[in-house]
Amino acid sequence: MSKHTRAYAKFGALALGCLAAGAGASAIATAGASSPKSSSAKSARSGGRGGRRGRLLRRAVHGDVVVSTANGYATVTFDRGTVVSVSGRQLTLRDGRRSSTYKTVTLTIPADARVRDNHRTATLADVKPGQRAAVIQAPKRTLVIARTAP
Predict the structure, then answer these.
(1) pLDDT tens readout for residues 39-97
(2) I need a surface site. Which of 51, 116, 132, 134 has the fewest CB within 10 A?
(3) DSSP strand E in the chain: where?
């Protein structure tokens, strides 16, 4: 494995960790709001434990995670939602679901960011309003993943 491949693999693992942390926070926030039901009914509806985790990850829209690094600590942020606009290096996202908005954020995307559009390598200019997107920002890398909503 090359040095760059290892770095991207670590970055991808970190991004997944951020999504999992966001899902955990969502689970904590919604735990008190759920109505009491039998655990067997919940398990049957969610398809078991793995189904519940997957559903929580799909619901996470924003998160900040502090991770330990060799040189101290670093903050990794992710935002997920619908692209409102792209202007130069500025990407505006409406965080949330299609039916509701958590907040609208404008992110400055560095020139060296890795951009994927519908599973293909792309540039920020290829990302269009209306697409679903996730932006993961770490101190040394930024990843933009966009896809056309079905």
Answers:
(1) 444 444 444 555 666 676 677 888 898 999 888 999 999 999 999 999 999 999 998 87
(2) 51
(3) 62-69, 72-87, 90-96, 101-108, 114-117, 120-122, 132-137, 142-147
